[in-house]
Automatic annotation (TrEMBL):
Keyword terms, alphabetized: Membrane, Transmembrane, Transmembrane helix
Keyword check for Metal-binding: no
TM segment ranges: 34-55, 67-85, 97-115, 127-153, 165-186
A Pfam family of this chain: GDT1
Membrane topology: Multi-pass membrane protein
Name of the featured protein: GDT1 family protein
Species annotation: Nitrincola tibetensis
An example Gene Ontology molecular-function term: metal ion transmembrane transporter activity
Keyword Transmembrane (UniProt): yes
Localization in the cell: Membrane
Amino acid sequence: MEAFLFSTLAVALAEVGDKTQLLSLLLVAKFRKPWTICCAILVATLINHGASALFGDWLSNLLSGNWAILLLALGFFAMAAWILIPDEEEEVGQQYARWGALVASFVLFFLAEIGDKTQIATVMLAIKYEAIVAVTLGTTLGMMLANVPVIFAGQWLLERLNFTVFRRIAAGVFVLMGVSLLVSLIL
């Protein structure tokens, strides 16, 4: 349960102000089909984060001992720093728009997540918790919690949220994870 809850919290916070939120806003502005876009995001995230969690589980079987814990702690610190850097806006290209809301949203969201901080976080969370399903479902729920409100109340939310505060809180969560791992090495 801890893996699921922490994965949800970490990704939901990390996603606030992320490029995928901006992409969600652009998709709904382009297609005006919020439920279709939500379904596409859900499927794209489940596939992307499921594969990431599997990769993290595979890595956890390769890595062991204090060096693995130290490497993971450093990864969480790097993630904290990365989260503090704002993302740039992306546009919905015309080559994708012709595919319709479902396919365009799925493809664009899936591609936007490749190498994104939440994908890397999913790998690291899977290494830490060794719980593929819980991490996948948690990070997917976190992604949905961050993106669905943007789809339905996007512009209003974007004008009122302070992304810097959310980025700092998310960075703090990842720093705490790194510190807890380093403490576990000492104790």
